[in-house]
Amino acid sequence: MVNLVFSIVFMLITYAITVYIYKKRYNTSKQNIFLAGIYLLIGITIGILYTIYGYDTLKVFKALNIISVALIVAGVDYREKIIPNEAVVFILSFACIFILLNVFKSTTEAPAVFIDALVAVLLGGGLFAISKAISKNGVGMGDIKLVAALGLYLRTYALMGVLMVSLLSIALFGFFKVLTKKATTKDEIPFAPFIAFGLTVCMILGF
Questions:
Q1: Helices 192-204 and 57-80, axial angle in degrees (round to 10)
Q2: Any idea of the CA torsion for 17, 198, 88, 135, to the nearest 10 degrees?
Q3: Is the terminal CB of the chain with fewer CB neighbours within 10 Å at N or C?
C-alpha cells in the first residue's frame, strides 16, 4: 500500500514538473489529460507490481525517478531532436548517489556494483559511439551521453534489457512508417521516446 501511494504521488508531481518545464520551454500552458493518464497509469502499475515483487520504497523511487526523467527527455527530443545536458547530469548525479548508498549498505558488494556500473557506461556509450561512426552521424552525441548515463544508473543487466526493447521498438516503428509511406529510410527518428518506452517496460518487469 505504501508503494502504491508513493508511486501515485510521485508520478502526479512528475506530471506537474513536466507541464512546468514544457510551459517554460515552449511557452504553452496546455494541460494534456492523456499524458496525465499515462503518468498515473505508470505510477499505479509500478506501485502494485513492486509491492507484489516485495521491493522496498527505495527501489520504487529509483525506478520512477529514471522513468520520469526519460519521459521528460522524450518530449524534448521529439520536439527538438536534442537530449538536454541537464538531464544527463541529473541521471549521473543520482547514479553516483545510489552507488554511494551501496557503499554504506554493503561494503563487500560495493566494488562489484561500481565495476558493473562502469562496464555498463563503457558498453552502452561505446556501442552507440561505434554506431555513430558507422552510420555517419545517424546517432547523435546526445544519444551517446544519455545511454552512457543510463549505464551508470541502471548497470549492465538492466541497461541491456532497456536497449533491447528500445532498439526493437524503434526498428518496428521505422519499418511501419516506411511500409505505410509516411517516412523514408533517410528520415530522422528521435531515440529518446523509445528509450523512455524501453525503460518503462523494463522497470515494470522489475529489472
A1: 160
A2: -130
A3: N
How far out from the chain centre does Cα 191 lie? 11
Neighbours of 72 (CB within 10 A): 21
What is the rounded radius of gyration, in angstroms, for the C-alpha atoms of the chain? 17
Give phi and psi for 41, each to the nearest 5.
-65, -40
pLDDT attached to residue 25: 85
- Model pLDDT for residues 148-189, shown as the tens digit of each residue: 999 999 999 999 999 999 999 988 988 887 777 666 656 678
Distance of alpha carbon 39 from alpha carbon 68, whole angstroms: 9
Give CA torsion, residues 186, 189, 195, 200, to 10 deg: -130
Q: Are 71 and 180 in contact (CB under 8 A)?
A: no
Sign of the C-alpha dihedral computed for residues 121, 201, 70 and 187 taken in this order: positive
One-character DSSP codes across 130-153 = HHHHHTTSSS-HHHHHHHHHHHHH
**Chain segment 75-95, per-residue pLDDT in tens:** 999 999 899 999 999 999 999
Residue whose grid cell is 545536458: 85
**Within 10 Å of residue 176's Cβ, how many Cβ atoms?**
11
